[in-house]
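During the reporting period the student researcher (J.K.) took over the structure-prediction task from the postdoctoral fellow and processed the backlog of single-chain submissions. One of the processed entries is reproduced below for the supervisory committee.
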Amino acid sequence: MKGKNLWEDLLKVLSKKIDKKTFEVWFTNTKGVELLEDRLIVEVPNPFFVQWLENVFLKDLTNILKELGHPNLRIVFKPKSQDKKEERKTFKIKKKTSAYREKEPGLSSRYNFENFVIGKGNELAFASAKAAAESPSSVYNPLFIYGGVGLGKTHLLHAIGNFIMEKNSRFNVIYTSTENIMNEMVEALQTHKMSSFRKKYRKVDVLLIDDIHFLQDKLALQEELFHTFNSLYDSKKQIVLTSDRPPWEIRNVEERLVSRFQWGLVVDIKPPDFETRVAILKLKAEEEDINLPEEVINFIASKIKKNIRQLESCLMRIAVFSSFYKKEIDLPMAKEILKDYLEAAKENEPERVIEIVAEFFGLTKDDLLNERRTREIVRARQVAMYFLRHYLNLPLKQIGNIMGGRDHSTVIHGIEKVENILEKDEGIRENVVEIERKLRWV
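J.K. obtained the following structure tokens:
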């Protein structure tokens, strides 16, 4: 099957999952141009599309690829080449940001230590990651970084890998996710190639694994990673893991494995303060050569407080609008473009989340907060906990208080229940996507 045909098949499925206007804006001018053994190359109008599609849609697109029978393919977006005469005057794209090459499978050169903005909430995580990269396995091994969505954990993983590869290109570095490892192991079992699977991960110099919390309930994978961990650790190879929670809060993972996660250094990343948010926006604008006035930067930084990806999303919205309509960026324009987005962000406080979830399941807010335990209410309550954790980045204790004074273990169980079901139940996945739309996060 050619890349064009596969991309068209994928878009047919996607068009049924998102609203028509969103589909037209972001996918009408895309084209599948090449299908390789391990990736599908998709051409998009410009580098802003690359970043937007990667940040917002890549996970859904990857899942659709799996539905179409291509679990090991990854999607790589490539900006369309443009003549200089055709470039917009309102902003320009630097050459270094238009080529998203990969030095090693899984490692993106877009992320490095130089373009990671350091602030009070992440300075320890940054310093630890830099130290691990400068002296692999000598200082912090393993290094375990945890924190909420969109705070820079994945950035640091790529930065570690890129730094080590530049320092010593002969190092065997692998960046992957727990989900990818699981898919590889399943395929290895089916094709009787477990020895090759084990060799791949036990012969590396540096292993970088994202979202290790998805190990929960995967007993076979836990067994494999336990022995892989021991092999690498005993051989003095560097291991770096990220998670949305600390090791001791990951349930249904063998105690011996959780214990090993804590052998080195466990460090968290907190949401950025105002000064850090301003610095992030300035750096991003400089990288993309966007003329962003100081008052616009301060406006965005004052409104988006918890998620770096949302900061970048606001910047991209403004830049794309400026490019399409050939208008200079100013504060009135920014306020108008971001009006709906910021209103949604303001509404997406805990009470709003609970109201939307309750309404979706045909319940009331009181139903979710009281002691009733019918099957439908329990499921809706767990979904609400999932959103409070993953999309508002709230602490478990705070979630328990919000949800009617429930204890820590009940909250963890509820969140993990949804996470587990999401992987197996298409109906629940569709419910979560629909709730996301109602909250206007998609």
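The committee noted the following: The first strand starts at residue 31 and ends at 35.
J.K. will present the remaining backlog at the next meeting.
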